[in-house]
């Protein structure tokens, strides 16, 4: 899907994976982790900062920190806006 | 509308969206969000800093942090002055 | 008026607007603002820092933070010395 | 082994050495150390940051700080994602 | 007067104005100021830092922060050593 | 001796001098010092950071801060891994 | 005198002036100073940092902060190792 939100600078819009979906791509988040990374899909990306082009692109499945981002709701769905530096890795 | 205020450096003047207007452009701000982003329209922009030109422009609808900016009242209307880095995304 | 004070670096000398003068240029500072910006006129400006030339100039009407600057009294009048980064916008 | 995780920027994916394996390569971690460094193997590396190419490579045995990284589980195995700056040295 | 002290880097040696001398050059320091700036004369200046040449010169009358500098006594007189960034403005 | 440990970036591997060896090279560490510097020998050095080549080299006797570094044990001997900036001086 | 200690980077080795020697070069340190600067002689200097060559040289009499540096004893004498930025001025 696409949404009419353009993140600024080094920010990205992420659609969090559903909570019950714990094994997509073979990645399981342990319940006992100190900080539980979460999974999601990149929906929109900013243009990056002057000296730091963006690495992730729309459609990437990513792992990000449990407390990262700001929640927004678009057409009934929940999303997160966060900085690319909050993203640990691309999976899949 | 236009106002006679020229923000300095990387600051922008924002006209907050009315509180009851929660669904313009399909964006709904959830009441339960950790930090509720707010919506508004860019009224005036600064010239940016030496190495960082501005991204937003007059007329853009934007999402910004709940606690961002300083309130001022111009000809009876409420506005906020904030830095561009306080803005999460352009919508619409 | 002119005074014999030359601010250093990115500092400016500001003559605060009288407290009762709340509507010059159509700008009213709301009493209920979280941080009340104040208005004043630029009396003298420094030469800026190496990589940051000054934006404001003598005579500009400006908005600045409520707690910005250091008070000095020159020939019976009260002034403030502050950094240009303490100034939010030029008005008028 | 290889996994389908691509760390971002200066991050690496590390497979921690088993707790009982204390003497591989002649390195023993003292129980009384102020901060106990831990050993592991590099499984995947990011592309580095703009001005800092990565030093470690896949397969390197490394020492890293006891509290470094974020745990994730991939196909039943435990891994850590951390920044290269959390790694003290390459051993072996 | 001259003294045999060469400040390092961006430091200056300041001779504070006598406490009773409150009106030289028309500048009066208000007793009620949040932070009272003080006046003094530049006696010696450092060579500046690599990318920041010095602005003040020997003989300049300056305003500086109330808590700036370190006291030293040279041939019976009190002086202050401070950084140029502690100086607000040149007066006179 | 040599060990199979390659410190990363600006880190070095140091073999601390034995506690009873207090007078090697004429250097005595006073018991009453606010922070007692310690002596040791450089065993391995990193490649430095992008803009800061390393100054110390293998074999140098150095003084370093009392609380610097992380302890590791290699083939029965105690070592410290620290950053070059934790080293005060080369002696001998 | 000379000692076999080579300070690293921007560090210097200082021989503190004897406590009773309060008037050398006409400088008297006031007992009532907020922070009492101390006097000493430069015995050895580092090579500076990449973009900051050293200003002081061996033999310079300097003023430095009361709490600056780390004490070491070399052949029965007390010295201090500190950063050049801890030195206020060269005297004499």
UniProtKB/TrEMBL annotation, chains A, B, C, D, E, F, G:
Its main location: cytoplasm. It holds the Pfam family Cpn10. SUPFAM superfamilies: GroES-like (SSF50129). SMART domains: Cpn10. InterPro entries: Chaperonin_GroES (IPR020818), Chaperonin_GroES_sf (IPR037124), Chaprnonin_Cpn10_CS (IPR018369), GroES-like_sf (IPR011032). It comes from the Bacteria. Belongs to the GroES chaperonin family. Heptamer of 7 subunits arranged in a ring. Interacts with the chaperonin GroEL. This is Co-chaperonin GroES. It comes from Parvicella tangerina. The lineage of its organism: Bacteria, Pseudomonadati, Bacteroidota, Flavobacteriia, Flavobacteriales.
């Amino acid at each position: 899907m696409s949404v009419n939100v353009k993140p600024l600078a080094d920010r990205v819009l992420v659609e969090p994976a559903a909570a019950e979906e714990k094994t997509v791509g073979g990645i399981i988040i342990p319940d006992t982790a100190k900080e539980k990374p979460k999974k999601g899909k990149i929906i929109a990306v900013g243009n990056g900062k002057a000296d730091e082009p963006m690495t992730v692109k729309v459609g990437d499945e990513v792992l990000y920190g449990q407390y990262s981002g700001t929640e927004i709701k678009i057409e009934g769905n929940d999303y997160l806006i966060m900085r690319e530096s909050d993203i640990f890795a691309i999976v899949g």
